[in-house]
Amino acid sequence: MWKFVFIWCAILVVCCNGLLSYAFNEAVKNYLYQINVGPPDRYGQYGYSNKFNARKPTLQQYDFIIVGSGPAGCVLANRLSEQSRWKVLLLEAGEPETFLHKIPLFAAFFQSTASNWGYVAERNDGFCWGMDDQKCGFPRGKSLGGTSSINYMIYNRGNPRDFNRWVEAGNYGWSYEEVLPYFLKSEGANLRGKENSPYHNHTGPLSVEDVPYKSKLVRGFVKGSKQMGHKEIDYNGETQVGVSYAQANTFHGRRESAASAFIEPILHSRRNLNVVTSARVTKVLINPKTKTAYGVEYVKNKRKYQVFCEKEVILSAGSFNSPQLLMLSGIGIKEQLNRINVSIVQELPVGRNMYDHISHFGPTFTVNTTGQSLNANQIQIPQVKQFLNGHGIMTTIGGVEALNLIKTKNSKEPMDFPDIELIFVPGSVASDQGSGLRKGLRMTEALYEQVYKPLDGIDHWSVMVMLFHPKSKGYLELKDNNPFHWPRFYPNYFDDEDDVETILEGIKETIRIANSPAMQKLGTKIYDVPLPNCRDLIFGTDDYWRCSIRTLSCTLHHQVGTCKMGPVGDPTAVVDPELRVHGVNRLRVVDVSIVPNPTTSHTAATSYMIGEKASDMIKATWETHRS
């Protein structure tokens, strides 16, 4: 009983402090972690204990070593350990989730905690003008569950053309018809009106559900979108052009991470699976003569260890850490590795194909409603009660309520292939009084104070405009050969001016929807306080919005392509269509770094699919080697 009392008191204290200051968030989170307190998960279990951190590899040698516990890594650990004769080790650099991770509304705060690697892109004069040091934040999850433990939980698979084009580029086995069963295999859908849809499965381990809470504002946005000609769709169904309420990786209103879906249910029942957290892998061990991977080196509790594998090393460390580990292990561009004194094992273009769904935070609109926008002061005792019962405003996935996938006039693609996503938020950076989202974005305090702070306490809404198919691409490279130093990130957003122009079309469509009868009924009016650095331009003109796009640039955790998949002979590829590193034996990369081009989606769903498909490919490979 005392645990329930403590949970109740802790949440109340958190809420009374304005949705958590960073320091208070860390204090509460760490204390709860230490005493093993948390709400019941979907299996009726309470809390997150030190059971992971207490573990060390119980063996010196495994069949498979998986590095990274994001969606693909957790799926791999689950599916490969189904074979009881295979010994599987999963290594994660971060720690297990706490109960605060489970509260969807708190998503933004975890970008300012130890659950985020805290990466920052290099400065560029073309973007992120409104961010500290003019550098974009690059959030990536550092916890059991990877980025699925800190992201905004949106489940969006993409368009069939995305995957069919992978096949056209020589990647056999990755057509939409071939990958759809793997999307479905993971999914445990609870979506109203879609119970009989062939595009959804209801028995998989990963919960996908309607967000329990919907504001009056989002209902107006969806209705207004339809009034302006946008069809209401299931964007994970037959068509991807239209408007929809968000489908989320939550279970009864609580975050469903890769760890809670694929690891926690099997952790104690499968003795052949060993999960080790706070284990920072620093190198893949590769025999330079045979070019065969045979293990990894990692650091835990300031001690260096080596562990070996009989079959494969599988990197599932994400679009930043997988290429970093390849380069530290001698796989990369020869000139770059020579510069940092890393001996070359295999020359491949690692890190060179980095795409991202660059986004723009804006525009913002005021309305004449009361209590419909997100606001820190809303979270009181009734809202906490609602959350504990699986509904209410705290189930909102970081504020995201609806998606409108549109095709702009800039696109030369077919009509069923959107190029922009409008992400509806019933609020803005001001909703948490500058304590969470502003820090995650790295927005300057001066910009926040001048533009967003006046909105505190006023009902308003915003749209984040996300570009699906950017023409600009960047790269990452190592600073030096120290595995504890960050890579250097050069996203090169807006190198191609067409990317700015396409986002501009998304802004114009947002304003058109704002002028719909449904939104005007709510008193919608554009918030016309100009950005400080754009004041010389007339607010609302195309040039003003171009300035705004380069000022409020941000990422949504969607970097892909840094270990690009491609057939033998593709000079831009790092792995083959079976995700094996070209020229290196018994080493695969299984995460969204293998995605050749940015998809018409959010990347979490794709990562789960990649993990499912890779598991079957790996099983097929080693079933033929059964002794």
From TrEMBL:
<feature type="domain" description="Glucose-methanol-choline oxidoreductase N-terminal">
    <location>
        <begin position="141"/>
        <end position="164"/>
    </location>
</feature>
<dbReference type="GO" id="GO:0050660">
    <property type="term" value="F:flavin adenine dinucleotide binding"/>
</dbReference>
<dbReference type="Pfam" id="PF00732">
    <property type="entry name" value="GMC_oxred_N"/>
</dbReference>
<protein>
    <submittedName>
        <fullName>Glucose dehydrogenase [FAD, quinone]</fullName>
    </submittedName>
</protein>
<dbReference type="InterPro" id="IPR012132">
    <property type="entry name" value="GMC_OxRdtase"/>
</dbReference>
<dbReference type="GO" id="GO:0016614">
    <property type="term" value="F:oxidoreductase activity, acting on CH-OH group of donors"/>
</dbReference>
<dbReference type="InterPro" id="IPR036188">
    <property type="entry name" value="FAD/NAD-bd_sf"/>
</dbReference>
<feature type="active site" description="Proton donor">
    <location>
        <position position="558"/>
    </location>
</feature>
<dbReference type="InterPro" id="IPR007867">
    <property type="entry name" value="GMC_OxRtase_C"/>
</dbReference>
<keyword id="KW-0732">Signal</keyword>
<feature type="active site" description="Proton acceptor">
    <location>
        <position position="602"/>
    </location>
</feature>
<feature type="domain" description="Glucose-methanol-choline oxidoreductase N-terminal">
    <location>
        <begin position="318"/>
        <end position="332"/>
    </location>
</feature>
<keyword id="KW-0274">FAD</keyword>
<feature type="binding site">
    <location>
        <position position="281"/>
    </location>
    <ligand>
        <name>FAD</name>
    </ligand>
</feature>
<comment type="similarity">
    <text>Belongs to the GMC oxidoreductase family.</text>
</comment>
<feature type="signal peptide">
    <location>
        <begin position="1"/>
        <end position="18"/>
    </location>
</feature>
<keyword id="KW-0285">Flavoprotein</keyword>
<dbReference type="InterPro" id="IPR000172">
    <property type="entry name" value="GMC_OxRdtase_N"/>
</dbReference>
<feature type="binding site">
    <location>
        <position position="147"/>
    </location>
    <ligand>
        <name>FAD</name>
    </ligand>
</feature>
<dbReference type="Pfam" id="PF05199">
    <property type="entry name" value="GMC_oxred_C"/>
</dbReference>
